[in-house]
Design brief:
The chain is α/β, with parallel strands linked by helices. The protein has 15 helices and 17 strands. It has a 5-stranded parallel β-sheet.
Length: about 375
């Protein structure tokens, strides 16, 4: 594995780099669309390629349950199964399992849970999570972790952290077995600690003893306020090694991209851009709006004037609002594509700003214009 820092902002922790993966070079900072079940909702692999996206996230928990790792392995791995040749990072599924509070039992050994699909019983351990990802053959593997709820007492958060660190150590041994067999995949263990800075520091100190290729930062955006997120995240990234990429899990609005990168984050993922698209929400460089609003029924401008995506080059707000109101499935693809284009475009702008040593100026310019947009401001 090779992660190389190319440039750092002189006034913030923002950085730009390149990560070499089994499926090519992945430039950072970057936003990764979420392909939970081997598909970004409403978006094809051809669409992902045309967006220029070179990295996505898939979920081990969901793929383990359906279609099953045997199927994916027989297909030749996740890349061939979903016909995508960019970098794929797989979430361990720990967050999904632990969110099933009435369907799971947790112990130091692992998690026993019942499938949300058919109620069948399963057991995940640090070792089986690594083996699942080996069958999927994704590029970057994460580890089984316990994400405490918010709010959590310090005692609850510490118990979850101690368990997570023990699971990480077991995952190291499981990962090495596959390395010894010739696996070239990358190891991205998950760092927890809730919203307690001293627990985050303890987790970072432990991570320094782990032979990791990158660090996954979990446990944020679970109900806390954004200022609280950034306060604790800043104290976390400052004690992490500079020579490893930092992946912030489940974070991804346009504002979050700028703020996270300013605090030293390299990679992010979130379902938010495609989820809001399926509710008619349109992202632009000046804010967001709902295409189904009455004022757009005879508006024949593109979703965002000046946008270079194929949706804006071809279709109008009136048409897209119409097919959305009619519940035509095409609307989900077109709106999702545009929103992902905006996110990818912003991530590219952030990277260029860091490389050209103008990150803070570009960040301020973005927040000056990004606000809730109305029809007149978008003309």
């Amino acid at each position: 594995m090779s992660f190389k820092l190319l440039s750092k902002c002189s006034r913030t922790q923002a950085r730009a780099g390149v990560l070499e993966t089994p499926h090519g070079v992945f430039e950072t900072p970057a936003f990764m669309p979420v392909a939970t079940q081997a598909t970004v909702k409403a978006i094809s692999s051809e669409d992902i390629d045309s967006l220029g996206v070179r990295g996505i996230l898939a979920n081990s928990y969901h793929l383990y349950l359906r279609p099953g790792t045997t199927v994916v392995k027989a297909a030749g791995g996740l890349h061939k199964f979903m016909a995508y040749d960019g970098m794929i990072l797989t979430d361990s599924g720990g967050f999904q399992v632990l969110s099933l509070s009435d369907l799971r039992k947790i112990s130091d050994e692992g998690v026993v849970f019942r499938s949300h699909i058919d109620g069948s019983e399963h057991k995940l351990t640090p070792e089986t999570v690594i083996n699942v990802q080996a069958d999927l053959n994704s590029d970057c593997w994460t580890t089984l972790d316990e994400c405490p709820p918010y709010p959590a007492t310090e005692a609850v958060a510490r118990e979850a952290l101690v368990r997570t660190m023990a699971w990480t150590d077991r995952s190291v041994h499981a990962f090495k077995i596959h390395q010894d067999r010739g696996a070239k995949n990358l190891f991205f263990p998950i760092l927890q600690g809730s919203l307690y800075p001293h627990l985050r520091r303890e987790a970072a100190e432990h991570m320094a003893t782990v032979p990791a290729d990158g660090i996954s930062i979990g446990g944020f955006m679970v109900g806390e306020t954004k200022p609280h997120t950034w306060e604790v995240l800043e104290q976390t990234t400052r004690v992490l090694p500079e020579n490893k990429p930092r992946y912030l899990m489940g974070v991804g609005t346009p504002e979050d991209l700028w703020d996270s990168v300013a605090l030293g984050i390299d990679m992010m993922d979130c379902v938010w851009p495609t989820r809001v698209a399926r509710n008619g929400q349109i992202l632009t460089r000046r804010g967001k709006y709902n295409v189904t609003n009455q004022r757009f029924r005879q508006d024949f401008l593109p979703l965002e004037p000046g946008c270079s995506c194929f949706v804006c080059k071809r279709y109008s707000r009136a048409y897209l609002g119409h097919i959305y109101r009619c519940k035509e499935l095409l609307s989900y693809r077109l709106l999702s594509y545009h929103n992902l284009h905006v996110m990818h475009d912003i991530a590219g702008e952030i990277r260029r700003a860091i490389l050209e040593d103008r990150f803070e100026e570009s960040r301020k310019a973005f927040f000056t214009t990004f606000r809730e947009a109305d029809a007149q401001k978008l003309r």
